[in-house]
Amino acid sequence: MFETINYESRAGVAWITLNRPDKLNAFTAVMHKEMLAALKNAGRDKDIRAIVITGAGRAFCSGQDLGSSDNPDYGEVLRKGYNPMIQELVSIEKPVIAAVNGVAAGAGMSLALACDFRIASEKASFIEAFIHVGLVPDSGNLYFLPRLVGHAKAMELAVLGEKISADQAKELGLVTKVAEEEAFIQEVEAFAVRLASMPTKAIGLIKRYMNKSWESDLSEVLEYEALAQKTAGGTEDHKEGVSAFMEKRKPAFTGR
Amino acid sequence: MADFQSIKTKVEDGIALIELNRPDVLNAISRGMVTEIRSAFETFDKHDAVKAIVLTGNEKAFAAGADIDEMMEDDAVTLELLNQFKDWDQLHTIKKPVIGAVSGYCFGGGFELALCCDILFASEKAQFGFPEIKLGVMPGAGGTVKLTKLMGPKNALEWLWLGEPMTAKEAQKHGIINRIVAPELVVEEAMKFARTIADKAPLSLRLIKESVRYAADHSVQDGMQLERKNFYLLFSSEDQKEGMKAFTEKRYPHFKGK
């Protein structure tokens, strides 16, 4: 179905694997299109309740394939390729996990930052590589990075472009968990399946309004919370959660 | 109420809800649909139990545009003789408040229909636009006129020339919509708003609407003249006596619309 990525779904989780291992999964125009299609598909599919993005081989994603682009207008490459992909990812009201198996460099790091969670292999590393070729962080990097690690640290990372290890990323609060290489996929799988069995609608609402909180004041957020709570209060999962609590059993959430 | 093909209607708690109902074609607006909307509007406008009207589509589309198949082979003379915009013109003669609740696509004729509403609520995910330029035509049911009045000629030309979709946020910035609401709650919030105004003095609602609509198209001087007459007119209503009496007696008024 896809040429540059692999898409499979199991146990309510969509696995999107960037699949150009010999090029360290660098982005091409085709990969942008395929990622957009895969994300739309996972977003629409009612059976999918969590999404994992990972890389085949030893890298997560090394960013833009500098050899592949004939288009010297980088602005257009972003507008046409990266930006729609990032917008789509953020607009999916389901948890999206970056399973960072190896190096996440440049736009590859941006992709990981745009996800809701990052699980890193001990072999993973992050690098704001843009500055080394005289460019600026893109694909939402300038938006997400200061929000995730704070302005001062973000400036440091973006301007100095020093590689950070999985453990350093964990200290910065960038990743949820660092896993040993051998256990990495199982850890990611367990985390994703756990998310996929949670109240999906509520997670989607948390994602929607937490994202909006960055551009809102307190009175707006209070109103968003009221709207979100009203919606969540009407879900089957809310009813199930309450009955399970009363009956002292584990709830079985369906995402509805 | 007549048996409609392209819309669904119901009256709930004093509010008439009209839903565009051609889901297979993203609620594309056919001539028949406009005739039905007009007929429903006129019926509800006269219906005593109805205090306000809510107009909506479905979650995916308010209405994605006009029915292109229907007009593809038309020529200028057929269109003149058909006089289809007469139905559209009548939509503006409704005296009761009309609240639009927009989710999803609201393009072309759908956008023009939304612009016929007095108040617009839109989903965070609603998209507005006039893509007519991409089909080698232009808006024909008030799009160029209303957009210009709302956002000024420079902004209007940009949107009409490019034909690109506008987010709810942009639409709100230009004064096109009143409120942005969570996608799940658009109709509910519009209904809630309709119920809130349904409790107000009906004649005041009516004459305020007339004055505001008139003011938008006339000079300050002319607008003030009409406002004055309407203000005087309310002093011959029972509701004015009741409203002012209740105010001095520190109690809630009971309006009868008389």
TrEMBL record, chain A:
It comes from Fictibacillus enclensis. Coiled coil: none annotated. It comes from the Bacteria. InterPro entries: ClpP/crotonase-like_dom_sf, Enoyl-CoA_hyd/isom_CS, Enoyl-CoA_hydra/iso, Enoyl-CoA_hydra_C. PANTHER family: EG:BACN32G11.4 PROTEIN, ENOYL-COA HYDRATASE. Belongs to the enoyl-CoA hydratase/isomerase family. CDD domains: crotonase-like (cd06558). Pfam families: ECH_1. This is Enoyl-CoA hydratase. GO terms for molecular function: catalytic activity.
UniProtKB/TrEMBL annotation, chain B:
It is an enzyme of class 4 (lyase). Its EC number is 4.2.1.17. One of its GO terms (biological process) is fatty acid beta-oxidation. The keyword Magnesium does not apply. It holds the Pfam family ECH_1. Keywords: Lyase. It comes from the Bacteria. InterPro entries: ClpP/crotonase-like_dom_sf, Enoyl-CoA_hyd/isom_CS, Enoyl-CoA_hydra/iso, Enoyl-CoA_hydra_C. SUPFAM superfamilies: ClpP/crotonase. Belongs to the enoyl-CoA hydratase/isomerase family. This is Enoyl-CoA hydratase. It comes from Fictibacillus enclensis.
